[in-house]
Amino acid sequence: MNNQKAYPIGEPDKKWGSVEKQQWFLQQSIKRSYQEEVLTQINKLQSDFDITQYGALSIDESRYPLFVIKTKNFDENKKTILVTGGVHGYETSGVHGALDFVKNHAQQYSQFFNIIVAPCLSPWGYETINRWNPKAIDPNRSFYEESPAEESAALMAYIESLNLTLIAHFDLHETTDTDNSEFRPALAARDATVHDNWNIPDGFYLVGNSLNPQSDFQTAIIKSVEKITHIAPADEDGKLIGVELSGMGIIYYAAKELGLCMGFTEAEYVTTTEVYPDSPLVDNENCNLAQVAVITGGLDFILSKDKF
Fold first, then answer.
1. Cα dist from 216 to 84, 172, 246, 263, whole Å
2. Taking a C-beta distance cutoff of 8 angstroms, is the pair 269, 213 a contact?
3. What is the pLDDT of residues 160-193, one digit of tens each?
4. Is 262:140 a contact under the CB 8 Å cutoff?
5. What is the Cα 83 distance to its own chain's centre?
6. HSE of 211 in the Cβ direction (CA atoms, 13 Å)?
7. Which of 3, 25, 89, 302 is 20–30 Å from 107 (CA)?
8. What is the CATH number of domain 3-305?
9. What distance in Å separates the CA atoms of residue 242 and residue 298, rounded to the nearest whole number?
C-alpha cells in the first residue's frame, strides 16, 4: 500500500499538482527568525571578513537576502574552499556550525586557503523549519543546470561567477527524526511513490561522492568528529539510511546524478555531513562543534597531503 494515504494532502497514487503544492505551502508557518538568528551573526563579522549578497528569495527579497562570507584579500596563489549550510533549512547545526567555523577558525586557516562560507542557502526553510522551499522543491536535489530551486541556482551562479577552482567543499547537514515522521511521507505523497522509513542512525555520519570517494579524507574527518560526538553505528543490515557502509560512519551517493549540493563544484575533496540532533547524547552546542570539527579535520588532512 502506498504510504501516501497517510499524508493529509493529495490523493493516493496521484502526483501533486499546483493545487496540492499551494495547499502544502499554506500549511507552513514561521517558527523562528532568520534576521535575529542568522543575519545578526553575519553582520557581526563585517570588520574581519568580506560579506557579499549573492541573491534573495523571490518570496520576500527584503526578508530573505542570501549572503556569503569570504576571507579578505583573496590570493590566486591560495587554494579555495567552500562551506555550505542550511541547504535544508530545518537542519540547524549546518547553519550555526558554518557560522561558528567562521567566527572561531576561518582566520587561522586563511593563511593557507581562500575561504567562502554560505551559511544559510534556504532562509525561508530555516524560518519554517522545512526541508523543501516554498514551491515544495528540495534544494538538495536541485543542483543542476536550469535548476527549479532558486536557492540552488543562486549559489551555483555566484560560484561560477568567481571563476575559481575549489579544492574542497563541505556541505553541512543533519538527519533528524522528522525525516521519517514528516519529510519522507510528504515526499511519497508529492511524487506518488513509496518511501519506506529508514532506521534513523543515532550518531554522526558522512556522505561522500561515489564517483570521487576520497576515502582517506572522509576517514580523517570521522576521526576529527569522534573527538566531539559519537559516530553512528551500522544497522542490523550493515547499512546507514539504507546504504551499504563503506567505512566507520561513511556512505557514498552519486552526488551529481542526484543533484546534491556537494556535487556541483567539481572540487577534489567533497563531503556532506549528517549530524543527529535528536540523540539524547548531544545538545545544540555539541552538534555545532561536530560541524566545525568536520571542516577543521578536513582542512588539516588537506594540509598534511599538499605542500603549502
1. 21, 19, 12, 18
2. no
3. 999 999 999 999 999 999 999 999 999 999 999 9
4. no
5. 9
6. 11
7. 89
8. 3.40.630.10
9. 25
